[in-house]
């Protein structure tokens, strides 16, 4: 068995560029999540969607209407 060299035991880990960028990326992702999450609110379904009879086929629901709004140019 080899004895560890004293220089290795007393060295402090250095902050590498990779660690800094990983931390910045994680902090950015956390900041984006915090900024977006308060805007996510459970909205009640519209009465038209709940009163409609159950049909097998295409139904225009709230999330589909939201999608159509995002595709407008």
Structure characterization notes:
This protein has 73 residues and is mainly alpha-helical. It is built from four helices and no strands. It has helices spanning 6-10, 17-36, 47-51, 62-71. The longest helix has 20 residues, at 17-36. The protein is elongated, with a radius of gyration of 27 Å. The mean pLDDT is 76.
**Average pLDDT over all residues:** 76
Percent of residues in helices: 40-55%
Gyration radius from CA atoms, angstroms: 27 Å
Strand content: under 5%
SSE series: HHHH
How many alpha or pi helices? 4
Assembly category: single chain
Distance between the termini: 71 Å
Largest sheet: none
Q: Secondary-structure map with pairings?
A:
Elements: H1 6-10, H2 17-36, H3 47-51, H4 62-71
Keywords:
mainly alpha; single chain; 73 residues
Task: Summarize it.
It contains four helices and no strands.
């Amino acid at each position: 068995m080899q004895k560890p060299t004293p220089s290795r035991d007393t060295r402090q880990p250095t902050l590498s560029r990779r660690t800094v960028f990983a931390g910045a990326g994680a902090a950015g992702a956390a900041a984006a999540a915090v900024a977006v999450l308060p805007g996510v609110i459970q909205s009640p379904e519209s009465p038209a969607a709940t009163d409609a009879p159950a049909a097998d086929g295409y139904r225009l629901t709230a999330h589909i209407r939201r999608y159509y709004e995002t595709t407008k140019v």
